Amino acid sequence: MPHHGEVHRAAPALPRVLVRRERLHAELDAGVHGAVTLVRAGAGWGKTVLITSWALGRAEPVRWLTLHDRHNDAAVLRAELTSMLGAAPAGPLVLVLDEHQRLVDADALAELETLLHDWSPRVRMVLAGRGEPALPTHRWQAAGELTVIDAGALAFTEAEAAELAAAAGLPAPDPDSLGWAAGLRLDDAAAGDYLDSEVLSGLCECTWRLLLRVSILSSVPSGLAAELSGEPGAGRILSGLAAADAFVTADPGDSDLFHLHPRLRATLLRRLRRDEPGQVRSLHTRAMRWYTVHEPREALDHALAAEDWTELGRLVVGAAAPFIVSGDRNRLFAMLQRVPWPVLTRDEAELAVCGALRLFSEGDYAAVPAQLARAGRLLEGRTEADRLMAGTAVRLLEAILVRRVRGEMPALVAQTTRILRELATVRLEDMPAAHQYRALAIANKGIGLFWAGRADAAERYLWAGLSVARANGVPLVEINMLGHLGALALVTGSRQDAWEYAEQSRHLAERHHVETTPQASLAFLVEAFVAVERNDVDTAEELLRQAQHWEPYPHEAALVTMTGVARTHLLLIRGQPEAAREVIRQARHDWPETLDAPLLRRWLNLTESEVDLELGDPELVLARYAAMGEPRLLAAERASLARALLATGERDRADELFRRATGGSDPLTAIIAWIGIALVAEDRGAEAEALRAIRRADELAARDRITWPFHRFPGRAVTALLRRSRLTPEAAPARAGPLPPLAEPLSNREVEVLHFLPTLLTVNEIADSLSISANTVKVHLRAIYRKLGARRRREAVLIARDRGLL
Hints:
The protein is mainly alpha-helical. It is built from 41 helices and 8 strands.
C-alpha cells in the first residue's frame, strides 16, 4: 500500500461527503506515466475534487498551483514554479496546474513549456481546467505522452450518483444532470444561480441572446440557431462554447448540430419565459417553419408548442402518420395526447386524422373507422391537389387500422392498389412522407395478397415492401415483411427459409426493442410452427408464449386465428387431441364476420382435419372436403382427404390422392403422401414398393428435420416400415456437389442492386433508392446477368437464391 504523499498546501480542501472514484483514479495513475494528463470540463464537473482525492493517495510528492491572472507574467510564473519544485525532495513528482484556461500570455506559456522540458522526465504534469489549454498538446498526443479525461469520463455513473445521494442525504439524482457533479448536489434554483455565476455571467450580449433563444430546442442546428437569434455566426459561437466546455457540446456525428446541457437549457428557458414571455410562442413558430423545410417530423413539437393546430394537422398527415409503424410511434401518441380534444373535432380533415390516431393510441379501436370516415367527408369539396395528401393518409390508415385489423384481405389489396396508383403522381416536396407511405402501401398489399392465397404475387410485393422499408427507414415494416416472407416460405414448403426469415425478423425487432409489437409476433408464430413440425415441443411452447406477448394494440384477426392454429398443433404433438379440438373449434367460433382470408380458412380446415383424424373421426374430414370438390383441393388438402379415405378402407382412392399429393413444393405434404403410399403398398403386399416409398419420405424429412408426420398415422406400421427400410441396403442416388464459385464475384454495389431484383421496383425506382442514375443501375444489371449466367431478371433471382446470394 502506498503511503499518503505530500501535497502542497495550496491544494483545495475536500468536501465533507466524498465518493471515491477508483475508475478515474486508475486513469490518472496511468496518465502520469506520460508527460501530461489533461482533465478538462466545465464548471462543477468535479475536476479539482478528483485530482485532490487522487493526489492524497500517491507515493511521490504532488505540487499544486492554482493559476491566476498574475501568472500571465512569465517572470512570476517562473519564480513560483521554481520555488515550488526546487524545495521538493529528489525523485519524481507530480505538478498539478489548476484553472489552466487562465494562462493565455504567449511568453508565460513559452516559459512553462521550457520549464517542463528542462524538468522532464522527473516532473509529470496534470493540467485541470475548462477547454483546450493554449499549449502544444498535439505534440504530446502524437508522442503518446498525453492522457485526456473529459466531461464524459468525469460524469458520475448511476451507481456513483446514487452513492453520493445516499451519503449526503440528497434526493434521488436528477437524470437531467447527466452526471454533472455540482448538479447532483443542487436543486433547480441553486443550479441556475451556479450556472449564472460560473458560465453565463462572462458571456457577451450576442452569445447570451443566442443561448436564450435556442433554449426552446432539444438539439440545436447551427442554421436554426442563426434564424432564431439573428446572429449569422451562430455556428461559430456554438463551436467556441463547445471548445470552452461551456455546457454546450458538438454532436459527434454532425458538425452543424449542438446540444445544450439539460440543466443549462432549463435555466435559460426559465429566464426566457420570465423576461420575454411573448417571445416563446413566436420562437416556436419560427422553429416550426424552419423544420418544415429541413426536417418535417421535428416541426411537430414546435407546432404543438406554438398551438398552431392547422399546421400540426398538416404535418401529421404529411410527415408523421408513418410513425405508427415505427419505434417513434409513442412520441407521436404522447404529442397527440397534449392536443385539446375539441381541437381535434374541428372541421379540418387533417385534424380529424389526428383524432383517429389519438383514438387508436388510447385503445378506442371501434371509434377509429368513424373518425377516418369523418376525415374523408371533410375532404369533399376540396380541389384534387389539395385533398391528395390528406386523402392518401386517410385511405392508408383505413387500410392498416381497419381493413387489415379486421382481416378484410381482398379489400386491403384493392385499397392499397388505389393508394399506390395515387402516390405515383405525388412529389416529395408536397408530401415529405411519400416514400414511407409507399412502403406501407406496398407492404400491406403484399400481406393482403398472402392471406388471399395469391402466393406468387404476394412474394413480389413482400420483397418490394422489405426493400422499400429498408431504404426509407421504416423498421417495423421491415420486421413485418420478414415475418410474412417466413410465413410464405412455410406454406410453400421451405422450412429452412421460413426459420431464417423469422429469425431475421426477430433479431431486428430485438435490436430496435420492438419485439412485443404485433409486427414482430408473426416471426415467433412461424418459428413455433417449424418447431412443432420438428417435434421440438419446448421450443415451440416458448415461441408461442412470446408470440402472444403483444403490446396493447388492435389484435389482427388473422394473427389471432393463426395463433389458435399453432396452439392446436402444439397440443397434438403433446398428445392432447381433445384439448386441441377445443382450441380449434374455439378459433372457428371466434372467426370474425369481417375476416376474409382464404389461405387462413384453408389452414384452419387442414388443422381441424388433423384433429379429426387423430380422434378417429375421418368422416368429418370426408364431409369437409366433399363440399369443396376434389379438383379444387390443394396438395395438402388431398393428402388430408387421402388419410381419411385410408382410415375408412377406401384404399385405391386414397392411393390415387396420395400420389397426386407428392408433386407439390411442400415437403411436409410430400412426406405425408409418401408415408400413405408406403402403407397402401404394404397392405397390398408390395414390400419393395412400400420400402421405396418410406425411404423417400425419410429422405425428405431428414432434409428439413421434420419428424411430425411419422407420428400422425395410427398403429405401429410406419415405425416398422422405417426400421426395415433402414436395415435394407439400397444404392444411394448420386448427389450434386456444391455449386462452383463465380468466376467473377459480384461487387458490393452489384450486390446492393441484386437485392432489389426480387421486388417490383423499376430501374428508375431502384436508382432513386440507391441515389444513383438509372443508367448506372442498367450497367450493374448487365454485369450481374453476365456473372450469374442469367438472361433475364427472374432467372438472375433464381440463380442468386441457389447460390445463397439472396
